[in-house]
User: Fold this.
Amino acid sequence: MGGKRKYHLDFLRILAAFLVMVHHSELAELYHTGVAGLGGSFVLCCVTCFVVINVPLFFLISGALLLGKEEPDRVVYTKRFPRFLLLTFLASSFAYIFRCFSDFNVKNFFWGFFAGDMDVTHWYLYAYLGFLVCVPFLRRAVRGMTHTDAVVLVCLRFLFGSLLPAAGYITGYKGYENLPFSDSFSVPFATLDILFYPIMGYYLEEKLPWDKADWKWPVLSLIVMAGGIAASALVTCHEGLRTAFSGSYLRLFVYSTAMAAFVLAKYLFTRPHREGKFRQVLEAAMRTASSLMLGVYILEPVLRPVVKPLLIGWMGEGAGSILTSLWYCVFGMAVYGGITWLLKKIPGLGKIL
Assistant:
């Protein structure tokens, strides 16, 4: 799409927020219930393996947007970090007051705020604060990043995130002891999400030769996504049939799925196109929706107990979990987005959200 606006990032932000809602709904938990049989459980497991790319997408987007910026370090520490810290405080205040208004206790509030357990689904806000602290250092680290560096990081992520866990599962299944591996050996740039995903987001956005992109790129992205999702789902379902579903292997290839989704989105949204009224309306809608997604993420886990019954109550008890979850996720996005739009009209709050 035209102009300097990166509409693929807008799309990915909307997708990530929607997947967060799906992850918080029953839909992401149905794969182990047996409600749809073995084949249905595998399909639902595949859906869940795709859903869990939500937060990795947020961090990929953050790296793509922030690590390539040319700005003094003080902007991060005096503008970006304080703004997000205030947002985290307001989100915690909202969650605590909404749930404990009649039993408000200042000590309990600040204890929960500093502990980060006011709402467990808001952990991302605290993780993002840690990322912001690292931004100036990461910017200097990625300036000289090469394709070889990216390959090395992905290979290390494969070792720690896919190969070793899968090998541990296979040896356990065969009745052998797990391969001993020292917990003291790690490579944070490859294993720590707040470092790996932003770095790879910057690489995918700035370092890939997009001027040479052709039809093979989206095809390869779809193959990588399908392969990673299928492999993770197979191991998860096998574990469920053998013992019980733990969900430990849903993220075996979450990094490759998220990165492939990023490449696919950028390829599709940066292809040459004809200008027209429909394109302008679509761009405007995406800009608006993208600006509301942070509010959706913050509001949804807190307001869900009130909003969800209102959205699905008319369906009655006979409605299936899959249908009610999908209905809630789609129309819940509109409800929480609308509330966020109203909140952004409040002076001062619009710049924070």
Observations:
- The CA atoms of residues 97 and 104 lie 7 Å apart.
